[in-house]
Amino acid sequence: MVCLRVFLTLYVSFCMYRNGCTYTNTTTHTVTHSHTYTPTYTLQQVPPNLTSNNDGEWEALLNAGINDWGGVSPLTRDYVNPEAPWPHLERLAAATAAAGKVLVPR
Q1: Among 4, 1, 80, CA closest to 12
Q2: Interaxial angle between packed helices 23-37 and 2-18, expressed in degrees from 0 to 180 and rounded to the nearest 10
Q3: Which of 38, 49, 74, 77 is the most buried (most CB within 10 A)?
Q4: Distance CA 64, CA 33 (A)
Q5: pLDDT digits 0-9 by tens, 15-62
Q6: In a domain, 25, yes or no
Q7: 38 is in which domain, residue-wise?
Q8: In-domain check, residue 103
Q9: Crossing angle of helices 57-64/23-37, nearest 10°?
Q10: What's the rounded Cα separation, in Å, for the pair 48 and 50?
Q11: What is the pLDDT of residue 74?
């Protein structure tokens, strides 16, 4: 049953994206609803380089419940999304702090 609910959440998010919703709105929706179906210790990861942080996108994602920015590195590029460079760590730390969270290394 949990798998079906997660699938439906992802499907709704996909439909939102296909119908003009922004990546951030779609991702925020997915993260918010995934907490309903996953254990509290589950990491909710969203790469920060897939948004521009315009209009507080990172803060919206943090407020939705993400607790992991992924493998952000000042030394290597993103091998999964090479067209999207990592943000500067100072900028990411400031945005994370603005949402009341702390950016820490893994």
Answers
A1: 4
A2: 170
A3: 49
A4: 9
A5: 666 777 777 777 787 888 787 777 878 888 888 988 877 778 899 899
A6: yes
A7: 2-98
A8: no
A9: 10
A10: 5
A11: 85
